[in-house]
Design brief:
Blueprint (H helix, E strand, L loop, with lengths): L1 H22 L13 H5 L1 E10 L2 E2 L2 E5 L4 E3 L2 E17 L4 E16 L9 E17 L11 E5 L6 E9 L3 E9 L6 E10 L2
């Protein structure tokens, strides 16, 4: 009788371990989660890191090509763009992206005068995009819900992201694309942190 209990205990343990391992889909996913993948994705997310080929793409600084002669003489210009993305996924497949771009235009004049002073102009813009989202299911060698698909229902254009890590409060996505103009391969990496 003790052997039968031991065998049943071992079988139950193996079954539970297989179930727990099936919770892990992405390479950096937690071993076990009490929340479903749908529950972990659903909500409002702030993109805290966005890199294209390992270059930061949330902040762009563009300098003018050397000093040039402007209205007030020699000057150097600089443009600083800060991007803030908020992505919202709802459980019914709705997706919303809010993009805020904070711009700073800096004009550095070599010989300042009362009329020609260094100047700084700031601007901010907000754009909102509404789309749909879903998981992919069993495509090729991929497991169910290993990828995230964002679809524009009007144009039928889609974006496909590999889910590298999906935790309750953090998500890592990756997307490989080819620039249609330069034909350059681009790897886009995203780290998202839950807001709500």
């Amino acid at each position: 009788m003790k052997q039968l209990k031991f065998v049943v205990f071992i079988l139950i343990g193996i079954t539970i371990l297989n179930f727990w391992q099936s919770c892990k889909k992405g390479p950096e996913d937690p071993f076990f989660s009490l929340h479903s993948r749908l529950a972990r994705v659903t909500g409002e997310w702030n993109i805290t890191e966005y890199q294209v080929n390992d270059d930061d793409s949330l902040r762009r600084v563009t300098d003018s090509i050397g000093p040039y002669i402007g209205f007030c003489g020699s000057q150097t210009d600089k443009v600083v763009l800060n991007y803030k993305y908020i992505w919202t996924f709802d459980k019914d497949g709705g997706y919303q992206q809010k993009l805020t771009i904070d711009s700073s235009y800096i004009y550095d004049i070599a010989n300042n005068t009362p009329i020609c002073k260094d100047s700084l102009y700031k601007d901010s813009s907000l754009s909102v995009i509404i789309k749909e989202w879903n998981f992919t299911s069993n495509v090729g060698d991929l497991k169910n819900k290993e990828q995230l698909l964002i679809l524009d229902p009007e144009t039928k254009k889609s974006l496909l992201f590999d889910i590298i890590e999906l935790r309750n409060n953090e998500m890592k996505l990756q997307r490989d694309t080819i620039d249609p103009v330069t034909n350059e391969a681009l790897q886009k990496s995203y780290v998202l942190t839950r807001i709500k």
